[in-house]
Amino acid sequence: MARKRELSSETRQSILVLRNERYSMREIAKKLKISYNGVYYSLQRTAQTGSKQSRKRSGRPCCTTKQEDKYIRVSSLRNRRLTGPQLASSLNSTRKTPVSTSTVKRRLLDFGLQGRVAKKKPYLRLANKRKRLRWAKEHRHWTEEDWKKVLWTNEYKFEVFGLQRRTFVRRRTNEKMLEECLTPSVKHGGGNVMVWGSFGAGKVGDLFRVKGILNKEGYHSILQRHAIPSGQRLIGANFVLQQDSDPKHTSKVCPEIVLQELFTAEAGSWYSIGNGVASADLNPIELLWEQLDRMVRQKCPSNQSNLWELLLEAWGAISPAYLNKLTARMPKVCNAVIAANGGFFDESKV
């Protein structure tokens, strides 16, 4: 039997108006397209209570006590990785009548504790947090114009079939294994293209394809042939070079050549803090790589050569407005790092 629908306050008001106009209950039911019993009980309830509202219902009694609800909440907060079945099993070990996993999950939702996929982030040691905090405090007073003088640089590896994000398709029930409804994947990503890139002052610099393993000598060559020319072309002679503290970036060869060939003793060069991975969220070029990857995936690269061609095409299509937006968020990034005491912060809110 279908569940009966409760009459709204507007419908009950209409019943009273029509009844006062001398309509019969059957005429009211037909006119409002509701059952006769609905009209009858609505009028009866109004006569008894003097109100159009439903009577308060006691509802089904809660099967857990306040102390047990608190136990569920505290247990979940102490160990965020406990699942609903694990919490239910722990609670039922002290109860005569067991509660279901669904009940435990409802209690967690009442406390605002929702099950979500944990976001992956590199492990931050205390030393990393201190360096991040120190960097943020040193640069929190930089203006947007100061950040526009920075040439943001880094390397990134794009894989031919290396898409990690979920892909949605629209298919019928029996088309699950249809070729056009599958996401192709091959071992080791089907090959990759390693690139070095840079941007600054709302414009992209060189995009260089790295072949083989990039060592300190190769990075030395990139600084000479791509980083310095890109910085001078985009920003000017007094641009500030940004690079992470990857060993090949911080070798004695690379900073020396930069200081000798470009920077004055007063201007110097500026490097991001922490190890290269742990402080990736402080480098806006990481967001640029993600945007570039999304643009390339729309073209479905078939091999390494095709992937490189699509990367060059997408690199030239990056809008200045998007690049300026990445630069403009840096003061907020500094404040967020300070608020997090050197830890990670919610990048979606910056």
UniProtKB/TrEMBL annotation:
Gene3D superfamilies: Ribonuclease H-like superfamily/Ribonuclease H, Winged helix-like DNA-binding domain superfamily/Winged helix DNA-binding domain
GO MF annotations, alphabetized: DNA binding
UniProt-recorded name of the protein: Transposase Tc1-like domain-containing protein
Superkingdom of the organism of origin: Eukaryota
GO biological process, one term: DNA transposition
Lineage: Eukaryota, Metazoa, Chordata, Craniata, Vertebrata
Cited Pfam families: HTH_Tnp_Tc3_2
Domain Transposase Tc1-like: 71-141
